[in-house]
Amino acid sequence: MTPPDPAAITVLYFAWLRERVGVAQEQVSPPAEVATVGALTDWLIARGPAHARAFAARASIRAAVNQDFADPATAIRPGDEVAFFPPVTGG
Amino acid sequence: MATIRVQAEAFDTGAELVRLTVGRTDIGGIGCFVGVLRGGGITEMTLEHYPGMTERAIGAIAAQAEARWSLLGCTVIHRVGRLLPGEPIVLVLAASAHRQAALDATGFLIDWLKTRAPFWKQERTAEGARWVAARAEDDAAAERWSKEA
User: Fold this and answer.
1) Where are the alpha helices (DSSP H) in chain B?
2) What is the pTM of this model?
3) Cα dist. B31→B4, B10, B37, B39, B104 in Å?
4) Which of A45, A51, A73, B128 is 20 to 30 A from residue B146's alpha carbon, by CA?
5) Per CB distance under 8 Å, which residues of A are interface residues toward B?
6) What ipTM, to 2 d.p.?
């Protein structure tokens, strides 16, 4: 595993989102204007076909920032942990 | 302070009941829910979670239940990893001075676990593996606790 870069954003994927992206975790360093969960989603989709396919049903994808549930307007900063996942199915 | 555990191993419901009540004389009733993996074509299930966030989310839900129903004790254990039909998946215990609070808190906790705790189920059947979709009925069941608040 790559040592964490304090200026990077750690992105985590779970369940079918992880399978479609092809990795459970990645470190990304988007430009400074990518400052919300929604903007990060747009930026990830533009990275390549696996991300685009994973986020195709984006309305049904949930997110968390630093392990708290978030929405597309939630602010993100370098060093944050941002997770994307399908609706939960526990219990 | 609730007992929260996310674990691969099976749990012992009787032992957890004892742990919750040993030495106590203030408890008047304990609500108990055990979720079990139904077969019906499913040969196995794999449960995934978000280490760290899952425990925090359950802790937050349990703290809400403890405050709302003045619970005297609360245990939530949720299993992860590979499970077979007939195996227990989740345990909710809620102890209170009176039965209604214990039963209501138990119902609230399991309804919220199904809709707000970061777990994802993948079922395996004869046709292969598939991720379980979230159910509108589960959202409705959780939502009724907000209406009654």
Assistant:
1) 13-21, 53-68, 99-116, 136-147
2) 0.91
3) 16, 20, 20, 25, 8
4) A73
5) 12, 14-16, 64, 67-69, 83, 85-91
6) 0.91
